[in-house]
Amino acid sequence: MRISPVFITRSLIIAAVYTAVTLMLGYISYGELQFRVSDAMIILPLIVNMGLDAVIGLTIGGLLGNLASPFIPWDWVFGPLANLVASTIIYLVGRTRLNTYVKLAVSSILASLAIAVIVGYELTVIYGLPELTILYIFISELVIIGVIGGLVYRSLKVFFK
Predict the structure, then answer these.
(1) Does some domain include residue 98?
(2) Domain contains 53
(3) I need a surface site. Which of 7, 29, 75, 140 has the fewest CB within 10 A?
(4) Are 46 and 101 in contact (CB under 8 A)?
(5) Helix H segments across 46-131?
(6) Could you tell me which Pfam families the record lists for this protein (predicted)?
(7) Domain interval for residue 44
(8) pTM score, whole prediction
(9) Distance, C-alpha 126 to centroid of its chain
(10) DSSP code for 65
(11) Could you give the number of structural domains in the chain?
């Protein structure tokens, strides 16, 4: 794969938007009951012409968005890792021959599960929060990625055919 200026630009724009939304809504982006609205962008790799550049941008955005996290330094490791794993899952599901709605449902569930396990591990094992935190994160991510991200997907896929 050749890395073009368009690839780099698109990755950096995605990282910048993800970071800005995370930081602007910081009070609900971190913690046990987090509702990270910027994670609606995790669905972007599902769009055919916005694949690996979205994965890279979301991973960088996950790192930069966690610079203000109260859970540093571990959020600098687990946040980008969660975004990398979740967006890669969505990218891979997007390359299958499944129906569009099935792709959206399957990728939303798997990405939400990946984020819940990775971030949940950080919050429960390292910071001692209750194990129910994993379920809270899964539910919030499912709403954000599946519902809000689904709307983002439907809106943007028209422009990236």
Answers:
(1) yes
(2) yes
(3) 7
(4) no
(5) 52-65, 75-94, 100-121
(6) QueT
(7) 5-156
(8) 0.93
(9) 21
(10) H
(11) 1
